[in-house]
């Protein structure tokens, strides 16, 4: 027995040593590779692990599209990480600013504005950070797996790019040109105005490339480029390069936040710490500690070490313990929003609540909630390793409806959700490809082939899920109105929840007042905009929203548009010259053909003259028939009117006769009642006079009877 226990200890130590070595090797390289190429080049090397969810098999989802992933939503999004002051937000099809919300996902077409004395911080991936100064406007043009492009019409932005992987690009469009980040580093971009030049500063360790109207300028580290010239028009922009000038108060404060001392990471084999009390949100948390390699590329993951603590668990590997109180449940402190193209999206209230609710799984470790980012999926190359970029999901939950036969597609009733646990597959409610299904589940599902081969929907109940005891139920209207879930939680019977069926498609329909629903999106979905069940949309301050449609040539540099114009001018000139030549080359028509045409015209005119009398006679007959028909119709109408008048008169007479009869009956009834009352009155008056006579008669009879008895005696 002791020998067997010794072998187990040695095996456990070996597994931990291999895990630490693999993690160290992965941290040395931060190059990302799309997951599709991972499976195409090498097999999956993740180690199979046991868990509390072995009994809960992956539940099947709806039909999955073909292997083509061109129509999949982006795997990477941004996040509104921190806000100080008034910050406004709008989507691509909105014409009014609204208040920005913490932890709201950012994607292509979104825009932000900071009021005076306000500041906003955005996060893209696990290490990229963009901070907006006051009175700054940022329009996200494109944000997907490999590209971030945004417009900076006004204001100042600080950009910290932690890593630029092969094929990735980070670009900011200013009024005088575009700024493309080609190397990791820290940058400050000021848009400028008519009186102030546009400035681009590479603080340290970075390099930027400027392009635009007759502009092609590199900005190395420690240098600042100033762009002068008109904001609009085709006049070239004049660049000037100089050493970086002293930074503004805004940049100094941002750099001071980043220079805060970092805390040490918890040991890999540390035991789970005690549950701390819930913390309040601060403008910026302390500097984060080192994080596991699994979270590289997860938006919002850099803040987890500042709020909670990392540790390891035997069944799950690296886990993170959140700073929550007893009784806390995932996906209960926040609200639901409808964010295209994903649909229903969870927006958490916790300041750290982005990565743990859009990546990974929630598990229970020693009666404590812990978030597991999953295993490491790697591609081993001769000199370095690549690990894939995690895929963003709007909410890693399974929806269900409660009640007798109630499904989530109903317009009234309750809707619930259960957090997905270890080895439980996530089937998106939006249309995706098999590649997307594989990418979003590969870190937590062992048999990934079984998940991607699911093509039908079976009846699955909540009791098959590991976290079924932590399900949350609210009314459907509360979800549609984006109400805070914590205040709207209902307490249905536990057996009723466990027997509820999962609805993989999340078919609850949003309303015009659902968070994230713009008027144009609601119109495209056929949703009424005058929904009185929701609250009024709040407006926020901001600059005028420019809803203009730009052509493809307008997005090109000026010199490119001029080249295109020079190319098109000869083509149009050639077309104009070719048209007269074709007319001159056209042969003249023969005289015989013209004579034949004239003869045909004369014959047609003669036929028309012959046809006219017959047509006139036919027209006269038609008019006569129409007149007779009209007279018949009028006669029938008069007869009908007379008949209706007679019927009405008879009805009136009948009503009068019935009324007279009722009146006569009423008079007779009243007369009879009066006679009856008179007789009763006379009877009452006669009764007092007859009573004395009866008494005297009775006395006389009594006297006669006594007299007769005496005579007999």
How would you describe what is shown here?
With 713 residues, the chain is α+β, with helices and mostly antiparallel strands. It has 13 helices and 30 strands. The protein folds into three domains: 2-44 and 52-71 and 286-524, no CATH class; 78-124 and 127-258, Jelly Rolls (Sandwich), CATH 2.60.120.1440; 599-675. Helix content is 33%, strand content 22%. Strands 5-2-7-8-11-14-15-18-19 form a nine-stranded antiparallel sheet, with no helix packed on it. β12 and β13 (177-181) form a beta hairpin. It is flat and about 160 Å long.
Short description:
By secondary structure, this protein is α+β, with helices and mostly antiparallel strands. The protein has 13 helices and 30 strands. It is flat and about 160 Å long.
Provide key terms for this protein.
13 helices; flat; disordered N terminus; Jelly Rolls; alpha+beta; 9-stranded antiparallel β-sheet; 9-stranded mixed β-sheet; 30 strands; 713 residues; 22% strand
SSE map:
Elements: H1 2-27, E1 32-33, H2 35-41, E2 78-84, E3 87-90, E4 98-99, E5 105-106, E6 111-114, E7 119-124, E8 128-132, E9 136-143, E10 147-154, E11 156-161, E12 169-174, E13 177-181, E14 185-190, E15 198-204, E16 208-212, E17 215-219, E18 223-228, E19 238-243, H3 249-258, H4 304-307, E20 309-313, E21 317-321, E22 334-339, E23 343-348, H5 355-358, E24 361-365, E25 368-372, E26 378-380, E27 385-388, E28 397-401, E29 414-419, H6 434-441, H7 448-452, E30 472-475, H8 476-480, H9 485-488, H10 494-498, H11 519-524, H12 558-585, H13 591-712
Parallel strand pairs: 1-27, 10-12
Antiparallel strand pairs: 2-5, 2-7, 3-4, 3-6, 6-9, 7-8, 8-11, 9-10, 11-14, 12-13, 13-16, 14-15, 15-18, 16-17, 18-19, 20-21, 22-23, 24-25, 26-27, 28-29, 29-30
